[in-house]
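QA checklist item 7 of 12: single-chain prediction sanity check.
[x] sequence parsed
[x] length recorded as 277
[x] structure emitted
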Amino acid sequence: MIHLRNPQTLLADLCAIARAAGDAILEVYGRDFAVRLKDDRSPLTEADEVSHRIIGERLRLLDASVPLLSEESAPADLAQRRGWSRFWLVDPLDGTKEFVKRNGEFTVNIALVDAQRAVLGVVLAPALSRLYYGAVGVGAWCQIGTDAARTIRVQAPAAQPPRVVGSRSHPSGELADYLAGLGPHEITPMGSSLKICLVAEGAADVYPRLGPTSEWDTAAAQAILESAGGRMMDRVGQPLRYNTKDDLLNPHFLAFGDTRRNWLAPFQATRGSENRH
């Protein structure tokens, strides 16, 4: 039975599961592999499927009573899913486009959602040997290779100019507008949920995601970010929550570290300009 009162033990179990999935992903990554397109035209590889299978099997062994929602499994019956108070939310291979490009910027994401909030998460970048994990109210950590894990915290106050991370594969006009309103900044492109993890460890200040994402893309990294002192919120300042509606799409959002800065100001300035016209 999953007990949130002992999050360190649970995190250790989830890190082991993520590493097992990561090893299987790297086996595929190291050889030729086929790429298929799903109905939404997003890519799918053997690595996505083998990671999904390993994670699903091991989470069931950990606690078969906790439901699993994964990008690579058919969504549960809507009425049943909406009744879940606690469940695993998994992306077996986040950043498949980066996997196909072989740039290393892909991750395994495992989150525990409790009462619609991502409370515990593990993000593994197997090709980069980087493991992030955290539990809300407990703390967040990063382990590189075989080095000892280190505690991570967001950067506060934010750097000047602020360091922005943006999507490598999903640029948008709205992002350009936001950055113009933000003023002077430095931007680094990055794939997958690593962008949120960079904010969590203080290596970046803000990640504006003004394009489509699904709930399995963000839950694990949000748990890590919030465990490290940061926040994720939509364009009107509401925190991201999970399994609250019929679809599994996130609103546009900001992930940031310095909670004293008004990162929503560029949106507010845009709305004010629109109202004046």
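[x] summary fact logged: The first strand starts at residue 35 and ends at 37.
[ ] second reviewer sign-off
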